[in-house]
Design a protein that fits this description.
mainly alpha
Length: 88
């Protein structure tokens, strides 16, 4: 193939499927924010900022979370505790 000459013998493997990321056999990344049993204030802040699943949540840094409207340090601590509980 014409691209092999340009790329050399480099092999690119595909990324793991969403459900396989970080050993997520149980599909925790697809869990909705509402199912996490967070406080109403924290859950509402996440949902109101279009964070609907655990996958959406884990893709954000602490700084990204702090910048969300209605999301403060207590909410960040609560989310970190919940993610640790889920081993994510």
């Amino acid at each position: 193939n014409q691209y092999t000459a340009l790329a050399g013998a480099t092999t690119v493997s595909s990324a793991p499927a969403l459900g396989q990321l970080n050993g997520d056999e149980g599909g925790q990344l697809n869990t909705s924010i509402e199912e996490l049993n967070l406080s109403a204030r924290t859950a509402n802040a996440l949902v109101n900022n279009d964070i609907r699943t655990v996958h959406d949540l884990v893709t954000l840094s602490d700084q990204d979370l702090r910048e969300l409207k209605g999301f403060g340090s207590k909410a960040l601590d609560e989310v970190k505790d919940k993610l640790a509980e889920l081993e994510l």
